[in-house]
Specification:
This protein has about 120 residues and is α+β, with helices and mostly antiparallel strands. It contains four helices and three strands. Strands 2-1-3 form a three-stranded mixed sheet, with helices on one face.
């Protein structure tokens, strides 16, 4: 998929991924208005790299489930989603800490990807 005028955002995501090679994780926040191309940007980026991906999704057309995206991510990381909330978050962080991880979050707002790092 060819994206137009997304070079800086793709470059930022690539930099964040490269920064995880030392064993630390990263969180990239992808903001934008509805229809701005957030999903297309993330899909194009993931098509260019060979990395494991975990994702949780909030679907605005469905009734929200408590901790829905967190439970989806837990299942992908083979974490017991029946744990108490604090234990669930701790177990997910532990699972993410076993690998270099880039977490991409898509929201509305119109900003470029921002990086958050998790130090070992």
């Amino acid at each position: 998929m060819r994206l137009y005028e997304r070079g800086p955002q793709l470059a930022a995501l690539s930099e964040y991924l490269e920064a995880t090679r030392d064993g630390t994780g990263a969180l990239a926040l992808v903001d934008g208005e509805a229809g701005a191309g957030k999903s297309a940007l993330v899909s194009a980026f993931l098509a260019e790299v060979a990395v494991p991906v975990v994702a949780g999704v909030c679907d605005g057309t469905l009734t929200p489930r408590p901790l829905g995206p967190v439970i989806e991510i837990a299942a992908q990381l083979e974490v017991d989603a029946a744990l108490a909330r604090d234990e669930l978050f701790a177990a997910i962080l532990t699972a993410l800490g076993r690998q270099s991880t880039v977490v991409l979050e898509s929201r509305c707002g119109g900003r470029e990807p921002r990086q958050h790092r998790q130090d070992p």
